[in-house]
Amino acid sequence: xxxxxxxxxxxxxxxxxxxxxxxxxxxxxxxxxxxxxxxxxxxxxxxxxxxxxxxxxxxxxxxxxxxxxxxxxxxxxxxxxxxxxxxxxxxxxxxxxxxxxxxxxxxxxxxxxxxxxxxxxxxxxxxxxxxxxxxxxxxxxxxxxxxxxxxxxxxxxxxxxxxxxxxxxxxxxxxxxxxxxxxxxxxxxxxxxxxxxxxxxxxxxxxxxxxxxxxxxxxxxxxxxxxxxxxxxxxxxxxxxxxxxxxxxxxxxxxxxxxxxxxxxxxxxxxxxxxxxxxxxxxxxxxxxxxxxx
Amino acid sequence: xxxxxxxxxxxxxxxxxxxxxxxxxxxxxxxxxxxxxxxxxxxxxxxxxxxxxxxxxxxxxxxxxxxxxxxxxxxxxxxxxxxxxxxxxxxxxxxxxxxxxxxxxxxxxxxxxxxxxxxxxxxxxxxxxxxxxxxxxxxxxxxxxxxxxxxxxxxxxxxxxxxxxxxxxxxxxxxxxxxxxxxxxxxxxxxxxxxxxxxxxxxxxxxxxxxxxxxxxxxxxxxxxxxxxxxxxxxxxxxxxxxxxxxxxxxxxxxxxxxxxxxxxxxxxxxxxxxxxxxxxxxxxxxxxxxxxxxxxxxxxxxxxxxxxxxxxxxxxxxxxxxxx
Lengths: 294, 325
Fold this sequence. Notes:
The complex is a heterodimer. By secondary structure, chain A is mainly α. Helices cover 75% and strands 2% of the residues of chain A. In chain A, a hairpin with a 2-residue loop joins strand 1 and strand 2 (139-141). In chain A, helix 3 (63-91) runs antiparallel to helix 4 (96-118). In chain B, the strands form two sheets. In chain B, strands 1-4 form a two-stranded antiparallel sheet. In chain B, strands 2-3 form a two-stranded antiparallel ribbon. Chain B has helices at residues 8-27, 30-55, 63-81, 85-107, 112-131, 159-182, 184-194, 196-201, 206-232, 242-255, 261-278, 284-298, 302-324; strands at 144-145, 150-151, 154-155, 234-235. Classes of the chains: A mainly alpha, B mainly alpha. The A-B interface holds A 36-37, 85, 88-89, 92, 94-98, 100-102, 104-109, 111-113, 115-116, 227, 230-231, 234, 238, 265-266, 268-269, 272-273, 275-276, 279-280, 283, 291-294 and B 53, 59, 61, 106-107, 109-114, 116-118, 120-122, 124-125, 128-129, 132, 196-197, 242, 246, 249-250, 253, 282-283, 285-286, 288-290, 292-293, 296-297, 300.
């Protein structure tokens, strides 16, 4: 194999890796704000892809605006989920397993609901750019794959500044550190928690719209990506925002390269094997986030 | 306190129940017997999950994997080693128990949420291995065929005979579960569920008991998986996806966890719901999701918990009346 093949592999691994990263970022936000796992992220990704497809291809809205619209829809959905279901359950003081099961139930509803709404046939997401390939350092790259990576990194940076430099971001971080202390300082913890869920849903929906042009859109698109996103989150250190992105990228690279250089039969297995290996050997992940063990 | 011997009312109820259970195949059509046979194997699988979740407080989203190990293990031992079917079921269940222990040992340090992730990843790995097995030894997506159960030369080739066989299995497994729960091991499980650190402080070897809970649970579920294979004679990987693990958990939570009757009732109701929803086809999983959500939000105690509350409520009323008189 020559260099250009490696280059193409690298670009496609960064593209899928940044999608895992966005999903894992959502897991981190949710875990930090409510200490919970959510199994809905993957299916919100599917929903995002369908919504984006509807806005962009059927209604003919420009891509960037479709992206924002999709994100806004998902943001509202995320807040509604938190306020309508999760908060209700937590107020009842039920065990964490019920919350986990509730998110699984919601993921079934979203997945099969979007199947009912958009049908079972895989839909084609029309290409976003007029050119098929762009040439970078002698490597032919699909502009959509490049966009995946660039938009994800941009989102990551925006989120970083939002969390560290704005007043609301700081109060979100305070609420996730110690909700009672934050409450007593006048921070609206209920609002910050809701926004965290909304943001993570928004990130997942954007991920869906970015991956749609590359993978096509179908109702189980997100469920596998969502499950593998957990692996990215664990590799980076569960609950750590930067770890999530790095973990996602590492997962994307390891997966893509081993699938094409060794064997593609067990492509999906690598993510789960990595998850177990990290959990058993280095549960704090790369960024040393102490979440997983007692 | 209650006396050890059964009082006459309970004895009569027990005898009537036994007669009804034994007489059912005489009156029911074949389809109903198939459903009842499924019920039996689900009771065993869900009771196994109950040991780990209801008693020991450990979540598993990967029990479909043990179900698969039981089914494929038994089928492959029969196919490639020529061992008679009933023995393969038991051997496969022991293999599954060993694998369960192997997974539980490193997992026992994980906190609740992450145990669900680890077990889910384990379930996915097993699913991928059986659907992409090297040399197609599991038949991959084409599925895997096997034979009926052979009990010392007597083949259980009808639903009626399977029903009776399953009935014996259910009783044996539930009796073992009862004894286990009431033993020192069961008390250690409960202590771990209530407070892991306190249990540790009392001198309970937390890791050891978590491993025991997991491997016994894996044994139960794998045995149920083997029953499933030899009831339907055909399996394919689709049965062993995450959906199945979620269904086991739903059955358990719907019935009520941490009791003997919860899994029995929960598996029956969810099985019926699944059968009814089958007619809806495209809407099946959608409606199932809504039902699951409603159950989780509205009925966290499970069916058994609700019934007990009702019974206590009525009893409370009765005693109140008696006191007034």
